[in-house]
Amino acid sequence: MFNNLKSEIENFYTSPADFMFVDGYSGIGKSLFAKQICEDINRVTIVSSAVLTNVPSSGSEKEFIIALLRKMDFNPLRNTTLELENQLLLTLSRYLILVIDESQNLLISNKMMLNHFSLLSRVVDQTNIKVLYIGTLPLQSRIESLNIANINRRSIHYSLIA
Questions:
Q1: For an engineered disulfide with 41, which of 31, 50, 82, 108 has Cβ 3.0 to 4.6 Å away?
Q2: pLDDT tens digits for range 16-49
Q3: Closest among 126, 120, 130 to 41, alpha carbons compared
Q4: Contacts of 139-143 spanning 24+ positions with Cβ under 8 A
Q5: pTM score, whole prediction
């Protein structure tokens, strides 16, 4: 099951898609797999090229950005969301892939999803980073219904079946 996913992720690196969504049942090893993918990428590259973070279970994009910057060993010193976003863009420009676990937390509200994907669309457009989402619930139908920043057109969806 994970060998097929690993192959799909390798294809994702060279595909025109910017986002990949992987969903599967709780407890089947998605988070461990995400961690392993990041470790593998970072082991074969000269500098850190992959970063793994979680979607907070509640909170704002500002909190997400601060948590992500801290994951990259960067102490966010600025206060406004715009300043933090600029700091995030500069920091992520060195990375190849951003892996976001617990993506089902985005389903808490439409506003949270809209804000998140608006931010990540700008990040992808300005840095050329790929974004891999891992979660228990499929986001595809909600993304389609909200037509969020054409995310669906720019993404690959993969469901793990145990």
A1: 50
A2: 999 999 999 999 999 999 999 899 888 888 777 8
A3: 130
A4: 139/21, 139/23, 139/103, 139/104, 139/106, 139/107, 139/113, 140/21, 142/107, 142/110, 142/113, 143/113, 143/117
A5: 0.90
Please write down the long-range contacts of 104-111, taking CB distance under 8 Å and 24 or more positions apart. 104/23, 104/55, 104/135, 104/136, 104/137, 104/139, 105/54, 105/55, 105/56, 105/57, 105/58, 105/135, 106/55, 106/135, 106/139, 107/137, 107/139, 107/142, 108/57, 108/58, 110/142, 110/146
pLDDT tens column, 101-112? 999 988 888 888
- ∠ CA 75-121-111, nearest 5°, is 85
Q: What is the pLDDT of residues 67-100, one digit of tens each?
A: 888 888 888 776 788 888 888 999 899 899 999 9
Report CA-CA distances (Å) from 144 to 85, 147, 158, 159.
26, 5, 15, 16
Q: Does domain 2-159 have CATH number 3.40.50.300?
A: yes
In what helix (H) or strand (E) does residue 69 lie, and over which residues does it extend?
Answer: helix 61-71
Q: Residues 35, 30, 121, 67: is their CA dihedral positive or negative? A: negative
